[in-house]
Amino acid sequence: MIPAAFAEQTIAREGAPGRTWIEQLPGLTEHHLGRWRCTPTGPAVHGQVALIVPAVRDGEAVVLKLSFPHPGNRFESTALCVWSGVGAVRLLERDDADFALLLERVSGQTLSSATEDPWTVAGGLARRLAVPAPAGIPRLTSTLPGWSRQLLA
Fold first, then answer.
1. Which domain holds residue 25?
2. So which domain of life are we looking at (predicted)?
C-alpha cells in the first residue's frame, strides 16, 4: 500500500509524471520484491522522494527502496557501490532503470541520538565517505551553481 501522504506530495511536486509513477509503484514494488526474493515485514514508509518497504530475504533484514526517477537520484546506487558499506548502508541489489535498490536494513539511530559527540561521529563518517568519485559522476563544483540559484530564488 502506497501511503496517501507520499502519493499526494509526489503528485503535487512532480505533476503528471509523478501521478504516472505513483500509479505504477504498486507493480514496481511487487516486481522487485519477487525478483529479489523478498517478503515484506511491515508497512511501507517514505521520505520525500522514495518509498521504503521493510522486508526479509534469506533471513536477512532488508529494505526495498523505490525512488522517483529524478536526476538527483541517478547516481545514488553508484555512490553506494563505491562506499561498499563503509560509512553508508550496504547495497545488495540495484536496478538503475527503475531507481530500485535493495539495501541492508539499519537501525533508526541518528546523530541526535548518538551516545558519542555528534560532531565526532559526523567527522568520522565524512572521512570514511571521502573517496574518489568514479568517472561519469558529476562533480559537486558543477552542481553548486544550480543549487545556489535555487536557494536564492
1. 4-109
2. Bacteria
